Amino acid sequence: MSDPDENYSDVSLDEEDEELIWRVFYSPLEEKKTAEHPERPDDEDVSDLSDIDDAELVAKYQALKSQENRPLTEDEKRRLLITSFTEDQMERFEAYRRMTVNKPGVKKVCNSVLGHSIPQNIAVVMAGLSKSLLGDIITRAFEVQERENKAQLILDIEAKKRNKREVIRKLAAGEDITEVPEKKLEYSGDVRMPLQPDHIREAWRLYRLENSGTFSSQWRTSGEGDGKMFR
To answer: Residue ranges of region Disordered (predicted)?
Structure first.
C-alpha cells in the first residue's frame, strides 16, 4: 500500500498561511539581499556649471565636491551611523546606553579572583567589557528565541499539511468527513515575549562554543614546565 504522504506531498495551504510563511522565512532574505546590493540611482552629470549665475553656490558645490573623497572622522562616522538608525534600532541603542553594570560589584569579583585590590580604572574597563559580553549574550538569546519560534511554525505547517492529506485521503476513499479542523497558522515571533532561562543558557553555550579556540590551561605551559605546548 502506498504512503498517502507520497501521493499528496504537494498539498497547498491557505493564502493567508502562505503569506505568513513568505513573511517569516523568505522576506528577511530579500531584505538582506537588497541591503547588500542596493540600487544606486545614476548620478546626474552636473560638471558643467557655466550656466549657473550664482558664484557663491558654484563655490559651495565645488568645495563639497572636493571633500567627497575625504575620510570621515570618528565623530562623523558615529553621527552618520546614528542618523541612519531605524526607530527600532534607535530604541535598542538608547536602551544599551542606559544600561549600566555595577562597577563596585565587578571590582569585588575581580578582587576575589585575583587575590588583591585592582585600581578603579581597571574596574571601569572590566565593567565595560562585562557590558559588551552581556550585550552579546542577550543578542544571541534573542536569536535562539527566533529560531525556536520558526521551528515551532515549521512543526505547525507540517501538522496542518498532514491533516489536509488525511482529509484528501478520506475523500478519495469515499469516507464521510464530519468536521474539518480549520486553524490558521500563527507565528509566535510576531509578539515580543521576554527571554526565558533556556534561551540564556543556550546563548551562553553557543558563545562558549564559538569562542573555544584558545588552548586549554593545561596546554599553555612551556619552557621549563612540562612542555605540553610543544608536543
So the answer is: 32-51
